[in-house]
């Protein structure tokens, strides 16, 4: 009986944490990490990135910046140094 009550309590706590986590995710979904305004999806050279509607900042998901670097080999020196890669010159 005590075990069943403990399991119900743990299940309720877990559900509450999951719900709180989901609410937090929804509140911050596509919000600019710099200014907090909404971000919109924009396509740059065939790659979808998020751009802030207020400060115009751009957010790259994992791998997107590298994809842009591959597409724009002639302009990559600055970005390679920014990311800590050796310059290919």
Question: What features would you describe in this structure?
Answer:
The structure is a single chain. The protein has 89 residues and is an alpha+beta fold. The protein has a domain at 1-29. It is 47% helix and 16% strand. The chain has 3 helices and 3 strands. The protein has helices at 2-28, 64-71, 76-82; strands spanning 39-44, 47-52, 58-59. Strands 1-2-3 form a 3-stranded antiparallel β-sheet. A hairpin with a 5-residue loop joins strand 2 and strand 3 (58-59). It is elongated and about 70 Å long.
Our estimate of the beta-strand percent is 15-25%
Fraction of residues in helix: 40-55%
Q: What is the global morphology?
A: elongated
Order of helices and strands: HEEEHH
Query: For the residues shown, what is the average pLDDT?
Result: 81
Question: Poorly predicted ranges (pLDDT <50, ≥5 residues)?
Answer: none
Q: Roughly how many Å apart are the termini?
A: 72 Å
Biggest sheet, in brief?
Answer: 3 strands, antiparallel
Tally of extended strands?
3
Helix/strand-derived category reads alpha+beta
What is the count of DSSP helices, taking H or I runs of 4+ residues? 3
Radius of gyration: 21 Å
> Order of strands across the biggest sheet?
1-2-3
């Amino acid at each position: 009986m005590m075990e069943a009550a403990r399991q119900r309590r743990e299940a309720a706590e877990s559900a509450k944490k999951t719900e709180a986590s989901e609410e937090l995710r929804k509140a911050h979904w596509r919000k600019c990490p710099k200014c907090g305004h909404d971000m919109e999806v924009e396509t740059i050279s065939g790659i979808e990135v998020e751009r802030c509607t207020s400060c115009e900042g751009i957010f790259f998901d994992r791998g997107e910046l590298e994809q842009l670097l591959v597409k724009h080999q002639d302009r990559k020196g600055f970005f390679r140094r920014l990311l800590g890669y050796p310059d290919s010159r």
